[in-house]
Design brief:
The chain is of the alpha+beta class. The strands form five sheets. Strands 1, 3, 4, 5, 6, 7, 8 and 9 form an eight-stranded antiparallel sheet that branches. Strands 15, 16, 17, 18, 19 and 20 form a six-stranded mixed sheet that branches. A two-stranded parallel sheet has the order 2-10. A hairpin with a 5-residue loop joins strand 17 and strand 18. The longest helix is centred in the N-terminal third of the chain and has 41 residues. It is elongated and about 105 Å long. It starts with a helix and ends with a helix. The C terminus is likely disordered. InterPro entries: p53-like_TF_DNA-bd_sf (IPR008967), SH2 (IPR000980), SH2_dom_sf (IPR036860), STAT (IPR001217), STAT_TF_DNA-bd_N (IPR012345), STATB_N (IPR057515). One of its GO terms (molecular function) is DNA-binding transcription factor activity. It is found in: Cytoplasm; Nucleus.
Amino acid sequence: MSSSAISDQMDVESSSAFSPAEPVVDGAFVSKHNLSAEAYQGFKECADSLLSGKVAQPEQLAFIQRTLQICENVILNFEDEKQHLMSDVLLVWAMKQQKLSIATLHTQQLHYKELDLINLQFEYFGELLQQTLSGLDYLKQYYPNVGFEEVHSKVRNLTHYFLYYSIIVSRQPPSVIVKCGEAENHRRSRFWFNTEIRILGGSAFGIDTNNENSNVNCYLITDETAKQLLNNAYLDIFESEEFCIEPNTTTFQKKDARGIKAKFDDMKVAKKVQLRRDSVATKRYCLCYNIQLQTNCGIELVGKKVSLPFAVLVGPKADVEAKLFLERSFADLVRHPLSDIPTHVSCAEMADALEMKFQAIVETPQKNTDGPSVVQPRKFNMQTKQHLVMRMKPNQQGFLALDNFMKLAVAEEFQQKKSAASDGDWKLVPFYDWFFKLAEITNKYLYSMWYDGLIYGFCSKEDAENILRCIPRSVLLVRFSDIEYGKVKISVKSRNGEIRHHWYEHADLNARSLNSELLSNHKFSDVDLIYPDIDLEVALGGRNKPRVRLPRNLAPDEIYFDNQGAAT
């Protein structure tokens, strides 16, 4: 497929994951809820007539049959509304949560806020269920053995299902937990993370008041145990033999009107025994939350909620992190837990995933003591997305083989031999390694310049030259090397129109910042702008001017002149 066709496809399909849409009114829910409310109102009028004694004895049997027919209509409407909330609302939210779990905290937080509207929808539906159950309780008590028991059982089962699946893992663990860090803390995971269990709605059934301060336990389990839980929700859970999770218990709290939550803050993975990297790199783990909640209608919510799978590494391992990135971005883990990664994805899907992953790596804290960064990430432009996906060679239909992300060589790295300082070999670098390395370099050495828009980023040499020729003044463009692994290129158009390219390794940037290099190196002294039209001196703080020796400002007195005469 041509690059222009890829661009057109991405324009249509790509919705930037950087900024999820603000919650809007769900028209489908409003329509379905109104139908449920109308059906309930018909049931309520019949129940009121029966319970108040307004229906004469000879007419009661026919009236009860009519009421039972209305109940069937109520159940149909309730099922339709429940299906919408579970499939079209909560499932869609959870699938997007999975994809955004590789993104920045800012992006995840925007998506998390959508739960406030979903919680309100669940509350509205929960109120109808509670009122219907309450009415049926009285009807089966005062009119036994005429059919209200069966209706009550159906509505109760529907309610039980709805309430149990209203309990969600609202904050997921990261896809990779790397166990490394300072020597004194080498047995713990490097970065903390937060997870959370949240109950949507449920106030009408007293879930918030009955379960505040109740305990919820968390276990670290293997994916094999998670598979067994799919078939047996009551399976006894035993902790992983290699690792344990801290903290492993917390309590449900209600701090506002947005439901009840159990927050596991500052979670870390602790190692029980000495392990080799390769021994755990291929394994997947999940967090399992043990749930036991009470309602005011006699329904007990007992079961286990399982997080998305993740890897625990005893030290960084880029290829494993790359596979987990693909798993979180493209596997259907919500509908089919622990399912495999697809073989192909669309260019638009890959472009959005790469954008989110780059943003997240750039925002990664560099030290254990650094707090989380919650800032609006810089977006990729369409040229950047198109450039990245074209490097992975999409097919004519606009789809990418995910094997190309892991295996396709796109750059080269020169590796010196230990025995000879000047001798070495060129090593081919796959796409994921090249991409992750540039994100890491941006995080460590180019953070401020990236966010200030001073770094163009992903761009070929040919594209850079074409871009610079369109600028009438002297200008430079900072880009990432397509061919040489881990290098930053400075493409410069001089005042005479000549275009040249300079390169820097990350070791150079560690010795002196790129900001200082652009200001002080004579190679860039005649450059006016940073692409597209940013004044270089204004953006970087001004060049260091050469020192000009000035005459001393003397104010001699009469004795000075007398001495001058004596000296001659």
